[in-house]
Amino acid sequence: MNMNRLSIPCASLAITVLVAGCTSTGTGASSGLSAEQDRRVAHLGAMAQLPPYSGPKKLIAVMDFQNKSNYKGQMELGTGMADMVTDTLIRSERFIVVERQQIRDVLKEQDFAQTGRTVESGAPKIGRVLNAQTLVFGSVVDFSETQQQNQSIGYHGFGLSFAHAEAKVTIAIRLVDPTTGQVLDSEQMQGKAEKRAMGLSYTRGDIGFGTKAFAKTPLGQATQEAIDKAVLFICSRLENVPWEGRVVEVKGKDVYINAGAERGIAVGDSFTVFRESEGMIDPSTGLQLGAARKEIGSIEVTEVQPKFAIAKILRGAGMNRKDVLRLLSSSQAKGVAPAPVNAAPPPSGAPK
Question: Looking at 181, 208, 238, which one is the last position of a domain?
Fold first, then answer.
């Protein structure tokens, strides 16, 4: 069975004979764009409304969605939605997204199904294994389509008809701190689309999720609109979250870090280095509380390879493997020292 396919109730492929129209509530490309802007819109879709980005890319992991709608086919719908979110996040050019197969392997290794734990409850352990800075959990609240067919002349499965279809897709997104398992923020997004057509149609009950045929249906367009809104929310929410990485090893005066050109690291990038204590656990609830951090210095990148980079020490000493790195702002890199940090900064994006 192809896990990336799902049966869409009453879905149809249409060959237009007279007139067909399809509308969505999403924002389309505006008129009067330059050729370069047209190419950007064609490549990025709704992500083209984001300003261009060229800095370090945060590592993010998208978990399979839960199906809380009335649609039957939970596993296929969950993986399909997560795959679409992953693809759109990549197009935003702001993130490196953990490979979906790697996530499945980690979940299988942790054996959540056998232990009865939920995936979200295991966020801290998953986050440590995947090294992700943020975990994205989602659920499908509504995935529905209604069709009205007024007149039809049929012959051997083919028919000429007047049809009106409306689709609605609602998803809920939760951003989770992989250190503590705390939900940093959540939001619901909805996509709607409708189609009116008079044409020759042939009904087929199985269209691949994420395929070109699916994208042309009202359900496909409503799904993409909801996904676009979700990714724009994620980009906005994580915009001011500092990029974080780790020290891999230290050789003499050279500090090797676990990110390179593939994650947007460039020569001249500067980072604050923190020493992190062991994670604290609440004795009452058993929940992860995070770990205390102490600033021990700063470094500047001098050489970049695809998957790692080498930096020189600007200040401080005694840096070790697993020390935490935080990207310095341009003002800090020019000599304005950051405020002393004696404990872990609040979880990324936590409310103030």
Answer: 238
pLDDT tens digits, one per residue of 270-312: 999 999 888 788 888 777 777 889 999 999 999 999 999 999 9
Q: Over the stretch 298-351, which tens digit does the pLDDT of each residue have? A: 999 999 999 999 999 999 999 999 999 999 865 455 554 444 444 444 444 444
User: Looking at residue 168, what is its pLDDT?
Assistant: 95
Distance of CA 35 to the CA centre of its chain: 29
Residue 36: count other Cβ atoms within 10 Å of its Cβ: 8
- CA distance from start to end of the chain: 47
Q: Are 300 and 314 in contact (CB under 8 A)?
A: yes
Any idea what the CATH number is for the domain that residue 113 is in? 3.40.50.10610
Q: CA separation (Å) from 18 to 154, 160, 221, 260?
A: 17, 10, 22, 54
Contact by Cβ (8 Å): 172, 100? no
The identity of residue 101, as a single letter, is Q
Same domain, 81 and 194: yes
Structural domain including 63 reads: 5-238
Q: Which CATH number does the domain housing residue 283 bear?
A: 2.40.10.410
347 in any annotated domain: no
Residue 151 and residue 33 share a domain: yes
Beta-carbon contacts of 172 under 8 Å, excluding residues fewer than 6 positions away, are 138, 139, 141, 186, 187, 188, 189
**Does residue 326 belong to any structural domain of this protein?**
yes
- Whether the per-residue pLDDT at 146 is higher than 60: the answer is yes
State the pLDDT at residue 200.
44
**Could you read off the pLDDT of 185-244 as tens digits, one per residue?**
999 999 999 887 765 454 545 567 778 888 888 999 999 999 999 999 999 999 888 899
Sequence-distant (≥ 6) Cβ neighbours of residue 143 within 8 angstroms: 67, 69, 70, 71, 77, 169, 170, 219, 223
277 with 90: CB under 8 angstroms? Answer: no
Residues 199 and 112 in one domain: yes
Task: Give the DSSP H/E element, type plus range, for residue 141.
Answer: strand 134-155
